[in-house]
Amino acid sequence: xLSELSINSQGGPSVANMSLSPNLSPDAKQSSPLISPLLxxxxxxxxDDEEEVKRKRFPTEKAYFIAKEVATTERTYLKDLxxxxxxxxxxxxxxxxxxxxxxxLIFSNFEPLHKFHSGFLKETEQxxxxx
Length: 131
What we know:
- This protein has helices spanning 15-18, 37-40, 48-57, 62-95, 100-107, 110-130.
- With 131 residues, it is mostly helical.
- It is rod-shaped.
């Protein structure tokens, strides 16, 4: 915005060019978006403690959001696994279309899979809470 100002012989800005720049205040100083009554009011100044609480409550680290996404995905996966497993077991049991030995082999793998993902979700959520 300095190129919009022309300097007169006394070293001050020219009045004619001041009206061309919408970002200038009447006293010819460039207005700043950071100047507001709240920022200039001493009673509204934030302390370092408030900033630390805000940072803890709303972490901005990319790794935190990735871990949060992993936990959300794991929670969804676990619920889907439960639904699919129960629907599959009930359908197979109703139609009796599979030999008992095959059912036992397939269904015996669901419990360890569910147990592992339940533990992983619990650990992920605990770590996020401590983050």
